[in-house]
Specification:
homotetramer; alpha/beta; FAD/NAD(P)-binding domain; D-Amino Acid Oxidase, Chain A, domain 2; 9-stranded mixed β-sheet; 6-stranded mixed β-sheet; 9 helices; about 30% helix; globular; FAD-dep_OxRdtase (chains A, B, C, D); thiamine biosynthesis (chains A, B, C, D); EC 1.4.3.19 (chains A, B, C, D); glycine oxidase (chains A, B, C, D); glycine oxidase activity (chains A, B, C, D)
Amino acid sequence: MFYDAIVVGGGVIGSSVAYQLARRQKKVLVIDRGKTGQKASSAAAGMLGAQSELKGDDSLFQMARTSRAMFPSLAVELKELSGIDIGLQQKGLYKIALTNEEKEAWKQLGKSQKAVGETARWIDRDEMRETEPSLSDRISGALYLPEDGQVDAPKLTKAFAASAAALGADFLEHTDVTGLVEENGRIIGVRTIGGTYTGNAVIAAAGAWSASLLNAERTIVETYPVKGECFSVRTKRPLITGTLFTKDCYIVPKAGNRLVIGATEHVGSFDESVTLEGLFQLMEKARRLIPSLRESEMEDTWAGIRPQTKSGIPYVGPHPEKEGLWMATGHYRNGILLSAVTGKLMADQIEGKSVDPDWVTSGQSFITIEGGLS
Amino acid sequence: MFYDAIVVGGGVIGSSVAYQLARRQKKVLVIDRGKTGQKASSAAAGMLGAQSELKGDDSLFQMARTSRAMFPSLAVELKELSGIDIGLQQKGLYKIALTNEEKEAWKQLGKSQKAVGETARWIDRDEMRETEPSLSDRISGALYLPEDGQVDAPKLTKAFAASAAALGADFLEHTDVTGLVEENGRIIGVRTIGGTYTGNAVIAAAGAWSASLLNAERTIVETYPVKGECFSVRTKRPLITGTLFTKDCYIVPKAGNRLVIGATEHVGSFDESVTLEGLFQLMEKARRLIPSLRESEMEDTWAGIRPQTKSGIPYVGPHPEKEGLWMATGHYRNGILLSAVTGKLMADQIEGKSVDPDWVTSGQSFITIEGGLS
Amino acid sequence: MFYDAIVVGGGVIGSSVAYQLARRQKKVLVIDRGKTGQKASSAAAGMLGAQSELKGDDSLFQMARTSRAMFPSLAVELKELSGIDIGLQQKGLYKIALTNEEKEAWKQLGKSQKAVGETARWIDRDEMRETEPSLSDRISGALYLPEDGQVDAPKLTKAFAASAAALGADFLEHTDVTGLVEENGRIIGVRTIGGTYTGNAVIAAAGAWSASLLNAERTIVETYPVKGECFSVRTKRPLITGTLFTKDCYIVPKAGNRLVIGATEHVGSFDESVTLEGLFQLMEKARRLIPSLRESEMEDTWAGIRPQTKSGIPYVGPHPEKEGLWMATGHYRNGILLSAVTGKLMADQIEGKSVDPDWVTSGQSFITIEGGLS
Amino acid sequence: MFYDAIVVGGGVIGSSVAYQLARRQKKVLVIDRGKTGQKASSAAAGMLGAQSELKGDDSLFQMARTSRAMFPSLAVELKELSGIDIGLQQKGLYKIALTNEEKEAWKQLGKSQKAVGETARWIDRDEMRETEPSLSDRISGALYLPEDGQVDAPKLTKAFAASAAALGADFLEHTDVTGLVEENGRIIGVRTIGGTYTGNAVIAAAGAWSASLLNAERTIVETYPVKGECFSVRTKRPLITGTLFTKDCYIVPKAGNRLVIGATEHVGSFDESVTLEGLFQLMEKARRLIPSLRESEMEDTWAGIRPQTKSGIPYVGPHPEKEGLWMATGHYRNGILLSAVTGKLMADQIEGKSVDPDWVTSGQSFITIEGGLS
């Protein structure tokens, strides 16, 4: 079979791309070297934090808020197609200031967002502690971002994949892609350990593992891995309502009195193990933020490897040199948030539709490196 | 603290009772000897099969359809309170006939239900295979029960418990109840391995393990355990839409291309292990019913211990001899389906409200046995 | 069948008793309410620390060193019968002093042990760090106890149980004991949720859960639960050779570059969950003791409920009031170490052999409490 | 660092090679793309079946019996270095005949082995059932191979790896090898997703995943994957003593009353999932062979991907074209058995020692394929 599109990587990005293409009657093949949705996508805390870090004039901001706005209807569509509830919660995000410097900075952040039409409100310490009484009194206040929310990240990925499958997409698991198939200067397929598959478009969506695929022929797409460690706890009752976000740590309330706490940042590491020190530092920050967390029950610990780019902007667009090869990677800590718009953007481009040029990775993001990534 | 009610057992029945009481501003304590929702409640396949086995004039039928009708609004309430989606699917149940005898019997069953206002429609083999093309051609047809549905049983239990907790109910896990506290001929509390708790009502809702609590002072409430083994598989695409139900085996489609297949019946066993032969027999039946199941991926196997009563009618009401002691057990294979109405019924009775006397276990269900259960 | 002995509890104590009885051709039944060996026995770190805390003239010391001395031959016997290697390591234990006060105290401890013929040697900081170079330099030295060692606790329990089964002992899992059977003032069996079993001796060996069984008829055997939380890590290479033991934390090197770190002490708790704060405090102590532990990989966290007695002496002997009822519980943190001798001691007593009277719990350990344990 | 050897793949073969090289003071790096020992090596049942299938004059037979003979001393060495007991059992293997044709064939097999000095004895049905009373009476007898035995495969792999690490070998997990580094026509290292590593020898020991590494520059080393599904059960008592081996199924008794039952054969599949039908067929064979297995408790199911070669002979030797590149793969179902000798053989060759030329893969095993493996 000659596919309309072959997606390499069955994480949240690859599955979203597959879903959008399948909705448009494209014949799609998704290839994953393990099981779909097992890597960074299911390690994510699932925040839809369009406003938690991006300024109103940041190049990613417009993309982020567009993606965030897609989730309410996506939740309905995906539930209908796959039966999976993605756990969308729209209860806001509190960007906590721990110092006066942070207080000023967060206020500026909010201001920049209000300038482009978003809601952001400064809440002082006392009001904040009234809103979330479990919070420590050692905070300076918080920027309240009512439009930011969250989803259940593992379920979102499963829902994209199952919905794509329900619409006819093929999924090939446990299959390593070992190279690209080129014909007359155009990429027309992939070689895998289990055979060759051909199609009209090949989309590299393998997160931190995309680099070797994209770097065919010495053109280097520069991404690097950033390990993030997380843990979760169970509490007897809900401790918080909205998501708490500080510079070093976030706490996301999940269904059933679970809290997900993340995340460390280890640049350069592909090692998915959780270190004692990583976990320890995270626990220390979390228990300072919410003192009553100390009595909570440890549930799980895990890590994910996020793909970062040198520019900080994800690669979403055509490969700069190889026709037929497309890129959807480098989403770093915004993979869940940006998955919705990334899927649509890729499908639009592959269909040849016009898209906002600001959202497509332009040529200058690519550099040629002698000697590889090491 | 003197509780309004102490519920012994944090499974689906106990948690539903606690939820209904907490909604009415009662102060409730739920005691579980392990973690809540870990036993038969999370082993269940989650069918809401009011019509799959009960005749229209069966004494349980009215209770079953009343309970089934409560789930749509329950799903909304519980999601709101706990964030947990209970996975309600209302896509009908097909009671498959494999022989002509079954065909006649199922038709009679449907007739009896239509006589009391329910929908039930006979579907012949060809129409059935058009509706569910994965089905074997060795069937005789099916009774289609469009109102029967299903939920995700582990999530339903978690949602009841988390919602009750959100409304103020206390949960005490890892706590063995070792006896009842009696004062002036009235049960006023429980002794546990970690101390004594007192309250206005004690509700035995510990499923198959309720007997020793209820049988204080030689009055025997006769329940016995029935082990049921199940397994689940993953398929690449949805194989079926509705639930398939045969005399010996059922196949329930779950979100994300999972199928739950159950269940064996081992009378008298408290042993929660899955036997090779139990699993083998179940697999054999399932692969005959849906031949393409052979390529599916084994996901998990498990067993649950269901509480059965001699009469076949669950105990939902006051203990016949001990004032202050209440019973909510003996739901056998209908625990998930009947959990909704059982919670309401118990709360009504404990509040002193009048309830349909047919639904409350009457005295004749109880017998006195010399020498115990062995 | 009328058994020679019915052991209630299939943990390390119950399984050791069953093993010793089965070796003597007794017909034994072991009843466990879950699976055997799943509670405190498999939560233990497995230290054989006869000298780590007991003074030479401590009443338990003689019992402890006798038990420790049994392990080398036990390891061989159990491997032969069950195929299970109990992971006996005889590489010594270092009782680390962190302050000068501890230094003096540990030296005194060693002196008291040398007085009764044991080996114990003070090692100063520099020698200690030469021996175990991963250790922090903030220690004052250590008492080296070369005869103390360790086993793999879960495997020891499994090996006792499998060896007893190989010698003919019956094991009944998933079976709650609900009461004792008494005849003419003598205990002759147990009632369980699945029937009644009779025998010549009933041995309560259910650890922290033994109390309700032993406290028939208002005579209180006073034990209380002490929860201990632990965690384990993986290192790339062996960090230490011997076991490190401080006042608050121990680190036990296991096969395959694993380290087990324990344990917190929560008096009165039957709750087997690991709290954030318990884990955090333990991690803090461990990373101070071995700074390079910070890079290690978190593997698992768990908790066990240890049975403590008011006197601090385990109950190993006949029940003070009920003929036919025996006790083997209250071993607190010494269950693994004392399991060997406890098995032998119980078997000797049940056979009517004379035993060292100092090792058998005497009457004065028992008290009558009004109003129960709470 | 310039390594003496870089081993790609941390399974049983790679770890054995690393262990033998580390023992000879070589500086070794083992690179695994996941965790070491997680693939086929830990899926294996651990049989040391040198005589179960190979004729006395088979080219692999000499290698197989040499390897088998190494295990007793290996067990001691690895336990000493790593603390891990590899679970060596030397209780023989019974090659069961189910038909008269098999009876004649197995007798011939034994005869061919006796001709080269091995022990093999025909046991008729009645004697066989006396020896292993749990066996079905529908067998025709068995060839008894007293020298064949078994180990615990996951522990063997861990023991090789931990022993190599203890001797100074470096292990790099979670690291994809993306290509070879070539200099002046010689392989001098590997490129990985986390950087480049150089060394004097590169050994491809990645099992079924070795092909892409070995097939640099269009020379095809022809291996293909064969998936094998297994399951394990727990029994209350030991059902069998020796390993039972039939044409389609084997049953291996493990420590602690576990039985491992394997294995299906799916040629061409890299998919590690267990299918319903694969498991079903295996269960059917096993319950016919040992009827009382029906009451056993299901414990686990799993699958592994074994690397097979077209000739059926593993590749153990230099790559036919690329100097500096070595191969140790293609062991199919004999990976555990042959791991011992493969490690030694590779270390000898890399050190430049002379080895038995019959055991080294010769040139004719390699062919050049146009268009790859698909």
